[in-house]
Amino acid sequence: MCSSRRLVCALVLTLLPVSVEAWSEGNLSGAELTRLYNSPVHRAERMKQPLGSSSVILGPLSHSGVRVTLGDDSMWLIHKGADFGISSQTVVTSARNMGSDWRVVKEGNFLGRKTVGDFVATGGSNYNFLFDNCHWASIRMMNQ
After folding, report:
1. What is the pLDDT of residue 70?
2. Beta partners for 48?
3. Terminal C-alpha separation, the chain
4. Whole domain around residue 22: which residue ranges?
5. ∠ CA(123), CA(51), CA(114), 5° rounding?
6. What digits encode the pLDDT tens for the residues 65-100?
7. pLDDT per residue over 21-63, tens digit each?
8. Which long-range CB contacts under 8 A does 47-55 form with residues at least 24 apart?
9. What's the structural domain count of the chain?
């Protein structure tokens, strides 16, 4: 059962183009993207930021995502939103692009048991404002 689930996740990940900012200049593709997806997550933090120009984080009137730290100490933000990606609404970007208004709301130590690809798959490919938004996706990612 577990191996078939991994196989399905791997298949889904190969079919879902995801926007990923490169370590230095552009988008990752090919071997670099595969390497990132297969990278073990050592630490994860559920993060929230205010929407728009507001400085208040208030429940659904905010945006949330999960910042993951990999074994090489690089940090990536995995988050979901309407029209964020092409085939998947859960995307991965460099955490260096995060503004100072993001706040940690929960921390988790994953000890390399999950990969970036596991987090993206758990976030889900579809977006629904009420039932499958950034908040539900980030909660699922932290609880996997």
Report:
1. 97
2. 64, 103
3. 16
4. 2-143
5. 20
6. 999 999 999 999 999 999 988 889 999 999 998 999
7. 333 344 677 888 899 999 999 999 999 999 876 666 766 789 9
8. 47/77, 47/98, 47/102, 47/103, 47/104, 47/105, 47/138, 48/102, 48/103, 48/105, 49/98, 49/99, 49/101, 49/102, 49/103, 50/101, 55/101
9. 1
